[in-house]
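Researcher: I'd like a structural prediction for the single chain below. Treat it as a standalone chain; there are no partners to consider.
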Amino acid sequence: MVNIVAEVISLPDLKGVDQMTDYMSMLFEDPAKDSLIKIGFITKAMDALATVPKAQLPHRGRDAEGNHYFVGFELTTDPIDGVEYTLRPKAIKALRAEPIYELRLSVERLNWHFRATFFPKYHPDTNQLFYCLVNPFEKEGKEGDNDDPTDENMQETYEVFKQVRAHFDDYRKYFDDLYQ
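Model: Treating it as a single chain, here is the predicted structure.
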């Protein structure tokens, strides 16, 4: 039995745009099989993220061999045209701005390198853990330092984190709507 320890939600950016919902809508509107595969993996990754206790999120930095700390998943999509697709990503990575993390999925055959920045947040009334997705984006692969969108998305997510922390009541509906 799967043990759900967190709710995974999408929060709007500082301009009020729910980027994660928009990204998923874009994929749902695309009839291509590749989009169905992407939706399948994102959905399964969000389900897997909900099972990760906050204490098991990866540490920042690198291990003794110089590798980043990660949490990995094994994801299998529901059948798409009778075929299940499997992915074993290094799915969660801590970013430099604490407490911002990155959900990571890469499917080489699709040349698809999906990322979504998020942060953990406990509901102040219920103590329920939430993982708050803010900015989904795609990387081209191995970008140079000037082309990598990670830092910008990390910083935007950090600003949302600060707003949620300082003004939770302004965001309460995103946390409480699950139970109404």
